[in-house]
Every structure is written in structure tokens, then in C-alpha cells.
């Protein structure tokens, strides 16, 4: 009765299964499809705006909004690595044995069973036949290793591309490097955004994975921000003049452009977007009861008292395009003993009838704005590992498909009688590109047959 294999053997065989490989590939393909269709890096608020609460729950539970950093996706990558390693370890010893194998003897009865073989006759003396075989095979194919049989026989083998059988394992290694680099970047790297107002500094990055923030080991200061526009109003180019501050001193200055990122301390900054914020606004408050007009400068989100009154006003919000009515500010007013009241004031439509709060008609006469630069911040310590893996993969695939292990066997024996002085059997085999090898084999046989003919003594 055959003994059932132990648990370690069963686990090993399971990880060496091609069925497991197919399952992992299908799971990764499906996950990648989801990651492509579902926008990545959405915040909780953005998810709630796009999807129902039930869908948001499952997206956040499964980490589909940051899929490539999700734990289950990393597990799939790890299983693929493990499966590839086990499959390689299972098949590599046989390949190495095949590569290291050397012929010790050649039996002619085996050569005639090869699908690719030819039987030739030689009209040369025995020593001439042996010399002709060696010279021609070395000249056309190369690397003939002869087995001397004295006056009874002559045998030899020649081969090219022996190490091509190992190229597929180079491809395996490249896949492992790519997966390792991806996991390295996923675990040790990060990706996020930071908005820096012109003239200010920041070292806080809002991560794409959620509302978490990360503190950089250095500070980024935006010295100046410039933006130019096409005639259509579309942005043509935006540029941020940045200074990296570390240890209390300026260590690097760089003009950040869309196609010219800044890299420092393994962290890369990309020019991604821009916007404007409100610093202050000049506002006129016309008291409809008394007819008095109060001209005031309101700093953004600071409480200011209307002159000669106890009424307090504050700009609490700002929108560049409020419901397609242009720029607008949200002003809150607090009167003593009354509840606070507020409204959106349309800066681009000063005569709009809704520009009023309580007994005040309000007009925005000037808005002081500053630009902020939107910077994408990325750290990926595995990027060079991935690039090296891709390079190795391209080279490995090229060598795997365009090189082959080609082998020749030749055996000659002297004969007596008839016109032939000896008979020759030559056989060949290749690991791939059979058609090309057959042409090479036929050319070799044709040249051998021509050279083995007896020379005219004229």
C-alpha cells in the first residue's frame, strides 16, 4: 500500500502546482482591473460623495480605494513569489543536471533513431575521414569534442547554447525582483499631497491612503509661485520656486515644473496642481436704516467689528466659482443679543439683490488672494529594484526565445569492400527553433558529404 505523503510534502506540492499559479494570476488580474476602474487615493469625503454608505463601507473594509497597498493584495504578491520560488526549486535541479551532462560514449544504433539524422559515406582514407569530420564540424558548428576509438571508430559531440536552458530562470528571478521592489515600495514608501501657500513653509504630507498625515524630515518653503495662461484661459505653465530647509538652514533651491521634479533625501516632489486662497477683502457695508456706508478690510476668518457699532463680521469661506456665479465670499454677522446670520456675497455681481445680511447691503470691492502650489510627494525605495527587474526580464525573455541548446552527435566506422572506405552517422537536436536548426544541420551535412568524396588523382 502506497504511503500517503506527509503534511510538509503536501504543502510543498501545493505551492508547486500550476493550478495555484493560474489562480493567483487571475486574482491579481481581477484586483488590478478593480484598481483601474475605481479611482485610487480618494478620501473618505470623496468616497461618500460618489457612493452609497454600504458601498463605501466595503470599499474601505477591503482597501479598494488604495488597493495596491491593501494587506490582501500584498498577500497575493507574496503567494505568487512563494509559488514561483517553489516551482523553480522543483525544476532547477533537473535543468542543471541536463546542462552539466557530458556524453561518455556514443552508440550508433541510438543515433539512427533521432528524427534529425543523416547517414553519409566517405571515400577518404580513415585518417582523412577523421580529420575532415573534425575540421568541418569545428568550422561550421564549432566545439567538437572527439572520442577516439583508434582504428575501429571515431565519435564526437558538439553543442552550442548550453546555458540557454537556464535563461528562463533569469526571467523567474526578474519577476521576483519586480514583485519584491513593488512590495518594498508598498511597505516602506508613501504617496501624498501637500499644499503650500506662496511665502509659507510646510513639512506635513496628507497621505492618499486616507486622512493620515506624515511629517517629512525636512521643510519645504514656497518662495514664489507663477502661473501663465493661454488665450483661452487654460493654464499654460505653473512654476514653484522651492527651498528645502533642514536643520535650520537652506540646503537646496529648485524651480519645480510639471516635467522637472525635485528629488531630495529619497523623496520626490512633483508639481501637480495649484489654486488660490483668500488673504483679505475690502468690503463696503451700507446700513439701509441710517444710510451710512462702512468701508472695511476683512482678513480671512478674522472677526472684525463694524465701526461705531457692536456688530461683528467675519469672512468664513471663499469660493472661486460659486454655483457658476463667479467669485463669492461667505460672511457671517453677529449682532448683540441675536443669533448669527450669514450669506454668500457675490463679488463679481455687486448689484445682486441677495448681497445683504440683516440691515446691511454688502459689496466686495477688492479681494487680496495668494496662490498655493499643489505638490505630489512620493517615496518609493523599491523603484530601482523594479527597474532592474524589468531590465533583467527584457534581457532574459530575449535570450530565452532567441537562443537555444543545439547539439550534434557524430559517429564514423571504417568499412571494407565496395567503394566506401567508412560510413558516417550524424544526428542533431535543439531545444527550440527546430526549423532554423534543420537548415543549419542540412548545410553541415551537405558540406561534409562534398568533402568526404574521394579526391581525383588527375
Automatic annotation (TrEMBL):
<dbReference type="GO" id="GO:0016020">
    <property type="term" value="C:membrane"/>
</dbReference>
<protein>
    <submittedName>
        <fullName>ResB family protein</fullName>
    </submittedName>
</protein>
<feature type="domain" description="ResB-like">
    <location>
        <begin position="18"/>
        <end position="341"/>
    </location>
</feature>
<keyword id="KW-0201">Cytochrome c-type biogenesis</keyword>
<feature type="transmembrane region" description="Helical">
    <location>
        <begin position="166"/>
        <end position="190"/>
    </location>
</feature>
<keyword id="KW-1133">Transmembrane helix</keyword>
<dbReference type="InterPro" id="IPR007816">
    <property type="entry name" value="ResB-like_domain"/>
</dbReference>
<keyword id="KW-0472">Membrane</keyword>
<feature type="transmembrane region" description="Helical">
    <location>
        <begin position="382"/>
        <end position="402"/>
    </location>
</feature>
<dbReference type="Pfam" id="PF05140">
    <property type="entry name" value="ResB"/>
</dbReference>
<dbReference type="GO" id="GO:0017004">
    <property type="term" value="P:cytochrome complex assembly"/>
</dbReference>
<feature type="transmembrane region" description="Helical">
    <location>
        <begin position="72"/>
        <end position="92"/>
    </location>
</feature>
<feature type="transmembrane region" description="Helical">
    <location>
        <begin position="20"/>
        <end position="38"/>
    </location>
</feature>
<dbReference type="InterPro" id="IPR023494">
    <property type="entry name" value="Cyt_c_bgen_Ccs1/CcsB/ResB"/>
</dbReference>
<keyword id="KW-0812">Transmembrane</keyword>
<feature type="domain" description="ResB-like">
    <location>
        <begin position="355"/>
        <end position="442"/>
    </location>
</feature>
Amino acid at each position: 500500500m502506497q504511503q500517503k505523503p506527509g503534511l510538509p510534502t503536501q504543502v510543498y506540492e501545493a505551492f508547486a502546482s500550476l493550478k495555484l499559479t493560474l489562480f493567483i494570476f487571475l486574482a491579481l488580474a481581477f484586483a488590478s482591473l478593480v484598481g483601474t476602474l475605481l479611482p485610487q487615493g480618494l478620501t473618505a469625503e470623496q468616497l461618500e460623495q460618489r457612493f452609497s454608505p454600504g458601498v463605501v463601507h466595503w470599499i474601505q473594509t477591503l482597501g479598494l480605494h488604495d488597493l495596491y497597498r491593501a494587506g490582501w493584495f500584498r498577500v497575493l504578491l507574496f503567494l505568487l513569489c512563494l509559488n514561483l520560488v517553489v516551482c523553480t526549486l522543483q525544476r532547477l535541479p533537473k535543468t542543471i543536471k541536463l546542462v552539466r551532462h557530458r556524453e561518455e560514449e556514443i552508440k550508433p544504433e541510438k543515433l539512427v533513431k533521432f528524427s534529425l539524422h543523416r547517414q553519409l559515406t566517405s571515400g577518404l582514407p580513415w585518417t582523412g575521414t577523421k580529420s575532415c569530420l573534425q575540421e568541418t564540424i569545428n568550422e561550421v558548428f564549432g566545439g567538437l569534442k572527439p572520442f577516439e576509438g583508434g582504428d575501429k571508430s571515431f565519435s564526437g559531440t558538439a553543442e552550442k547554447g548550453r546555458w540557454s536552458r537556464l535563461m528562463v530562470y533569469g526571467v523567474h528571478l526578474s519577476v521576483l525582483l519586480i514583485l519584491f521592489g513593488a512590495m518594498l515600495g508598498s511597505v516602506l514608501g508613501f504617496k501624498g499631497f501637500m499644499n503650500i501657500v506662496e511665502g509659507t513653509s510646510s513639512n506635513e504630507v496628507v497621505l492618499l491612503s486616507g486622512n493620515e498625515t506624515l511629517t517629512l524630515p525636512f521643510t519645504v518653503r514656497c518662495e514664489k509661485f507663477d502661473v501663465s495662461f493661454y488665450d483661452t484661459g487654460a493654464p499654460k505653465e505653473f512654476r514653484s520656486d522651492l527651498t528645502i530647509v533642514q536643520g535650520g538652514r537652506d540646503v537646496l533651491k529648485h524651480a519645480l515644473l510639471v516635467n522637472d521634479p525635485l528629488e531630495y533625501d529619497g523623496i520626490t516632489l512633483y508639481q501637480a496642481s495649484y489654486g488660490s486662497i483668500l488673504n483679505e477683502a475690502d468690503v463696503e457695508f451700507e446700513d439701509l436704516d441710517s444710510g451710512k456706508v462702512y468701508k472695511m478690510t476683512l482678513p480671512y476668518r478674522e472677526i472684525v467689528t463694524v465701526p461705531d457699532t457692536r456688530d461683528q463680521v467675519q469672512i468664513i469661506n471663499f469660493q472661486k466659482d460659486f454655483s457658476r456665479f463667479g467669485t463669492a465670499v461667505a460672511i457671517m454677522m453677529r449682532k448683540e443679543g441675536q443669533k448669527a446670520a450669514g450669506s454668500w456675497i457675490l463679488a463679481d455681481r455687486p448689484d445682486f439683490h441677495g448681497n445683504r445680511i440683516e440691515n446691511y447691503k454688502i459689496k466686495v470691492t477688492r479681494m487680496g488672494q495668494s496662490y498655493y502650489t499643489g505638490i505630489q510627494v512620493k517615496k518609493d525605495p523599491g523603484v530601482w529594484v523594479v527597474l532592474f527587474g524589468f531590465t533583467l526580464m527584457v534581457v532574459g525573455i530575449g535570450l530565452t526565445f532567441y537562443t537555444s541548446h543545439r547539439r550534434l552527435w557524430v559517429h564514423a566506422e571504417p568499412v571494407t569492400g565496395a567503394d566506401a572506405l567508412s560510413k558516417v552517422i550524424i544526428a542533431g537536436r535543439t531545444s527550440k527553433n527546430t526549423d532554423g536548426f534543420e537548415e543549419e544541420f542540412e548545410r553541415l551535412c551537405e558540406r561534409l558529404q562534398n568533402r568526404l568524396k574521394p579526391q581525383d588523382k588527375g
